[in-house]
């Protein structure tokens, strides 16, 4: 039990720049306290000391604000940052090098017995306030954004954001999308360039492209009119494209 504890402490230093000493981590990090008590409770659970295991988990919840069912399976170098409000269900399975932030729920969507909680493969990171629900698999190296609600599997290496959740492809495809948006002349209305939501970015890129096309057509109609070429009345009466109005709709 103490050998994994050393790895858990080292994981804190690897993922939290605020950690200054092993003594500080041991005495002041509720994630470490909850994990130590869970490993004890899980041992009891495996040896059919079910009430004692649940009582130990209950004490851990009172002391740390982190609720981990003793039946949950947790791998090595698991790190809970801050920790308050974290809930991990009975049939949850967590791989190695996983990180959870405060307010995360690994919950179920059914009252049926059996596997009903998520499986997190190695290297997964779950952002603050995210809810991962049901017997789904979050693939190795995947990331779940803060406050996301995940009810479907997330592929390895992908990122899940939003509510309802949207799956963002890998970083290379994300860069290609950004490059295409720049090529279209992306300059989003009322949205910062570092906006997190790629769907909003893509929509605004299309809006900008449509606005530029509308401007060029209007210029072409004026030029034709100046040359004595009359356009159809339908073209003359067409409504002007208002990108700012549409931007407000999709924001």
What layout of secondary structure does this protein have?
Elements: H1 2-15, H2 22-28, H3 30-46, H4 50-64, E1 67-68, E2 73-74, E3 79-80, E4 87-88, E5 93-94, E6 99-100, E7 105-107, E8 119-120, E9 125-126, E10 131-133, E11 137-138, E12 143-144, E13 149-150, E14 159-161, E15 166-168, H5 171-183, H6 198-226, H7 233-236, H8 243-250
Parallel strand pairs: 1-4, 2-5, 3-6, 4-7, 5-8, 6-9, 7-10, 8-11, 9-12, 10-13, 12-14
Antiparallel strand pairs: 14-15
Task: Describe what this molecule looks like in 3D.
With 251 residues, the protein is an alpha/beta fold. The strands form 3 sheets. The chain has a 6-stranded mixed beta sheet with strand order 3-6-9-12-14-15. Helix 6 runs antiparallel to helix 8. It starts with a helix and ends with a helix. About 5% of the residues have low confidence.
Features:
251 residues; alpha/beta; six-stranded mixed beta sheet; five-stranded parallel beta sheet; 8 helices; 15 strands; 43% helix; 14% strand
Can I get a quick summary?
This protein has about 250 residues and is of the alpha/beta class. Helix content is about 45%, strand content about 15%.
How many strands? 15
Give the strand content. Answer: 5-15%
- In whole angstroms, the N-to-C terminal distance is 50 Å
Number of helices: 8
Low-pLDDT stretches are: 183-195
Radius of gyration: 26 Å
Class based on secondary structure composition and strand pairing = alpha/beta
- Oligomerization state: single chain
Query: Would you list the SSEs in sequence order as H and E?
Result: HHHHEEEEEEEEEEEEEEEHHHH
